[in-house]
Structure of Malectin domain-containing protein:
Amino acid sequence: VRRVVCLEAASGRELWSRPYDLTGCGGTKLGIAYQDGRLLFFGHYSNHDEGPFNKGDLNWRRITVLQSESGSLLWSKPLNYRRRPTIVGDTIYIEPRRCDLATGEIQKRTHPITGESVDWEFLRPGHSCGIVTATPHNLFFRSYSGAIVDTERDTGLQLFGGVRPGCWNSMIPANGLLSMQESSAGCTCSYSLRTTVVLKNKPQKGLAEWAVFISQAATKPVKHLAINFGAPGDMRAKDGTVWFAYPRPKTTVGQGAFANYGVKFKLSEVGKPEVVQRDWRGKTVAGTDKPWIFTSALKGVTKLKVPLLEKDQTARYTVRLGFAPLVEAAGQVFDIKLQGRTVLESFDIAAAAGALGQAVTREFEGISVTGNLEIELVPTDKKAKLAPTLIHMLELNREQLRAAK
């Protein structure tokens, strides 16, 4: 139990004094902050806590909020957070989630695949003993190297490699700059850039940067799924759609339970698939306002199995496939099958793209799925050693969901 005392700044006169049970708010690491008429008590934690957190051993960590004028209790909740909370406007970031300043309720997001309301979350997958700093639009923290989360567009986790942020607070956003102070000298951690780095705010060229979307929620049943084949990372489009890279980004640099972070799914591809990539910056592709989708692809794949539903479910989907002549398209002719049925014969990428080499999409409605969607690209040239197939994108929209008979 602690006594909380409020003094008038000008005179030092006591305005109110109340005892409160602040168990779980940090003990000897008790922190206090003020925001919008509210006085917050929480733990000033900054330690290697991924192990206890994943075991559920931090459920006791609590935030208590008082009304600053009267000292009355507004709310007090155990919130299972890893590091010192960060307050931005009416939101408290309680790693790896965020809650409402007024109520302590966990804030939600719409899952980009299932459409369900799930906890908003971010992740610090790498080694770290620092806290989170923030602006109204971003979070900054150490995760081995520097980590950035765009909270405004909810794009995912981006890493700024080569620099070692400090063990407390060395990524400082202020006046349009992000200052990453040199923090590796005297430390046994080995980093290639032993220097201070300062980034300035400027208009984004193109759409955004590649990221890894963070969510531990279930990915089935699928309501909407957008896949960007061959992309180096995930990208949220201007319309809000999250385009997931496939193959999924390799995220083995995490530690402990976070050694393979990000949304995961497997398409069980058949053939001799090969990733093809080009830099999309400065590129224009006729027929699309998303050139980054059509500057990477999966080449040589003949079959994909897309997990969409649980075993007791069946649904109908609209299937959109996207193609472009990213590489030499001559001879890339194949049939397209969905669920074992041919829906398009002798599809010729070069002929469909025309002289402008434009992006081409083909849409198929009412595709019935139980469990998985099977997509086959069957070359018309049966003698080809490497299947002359190329696919850039797959987008699925659920039309109807029902229990299987």
Notes: The chain has two helices and 30 strands. The domain at 266-403 is CATH 2.60.120 (Jelly Rolls).
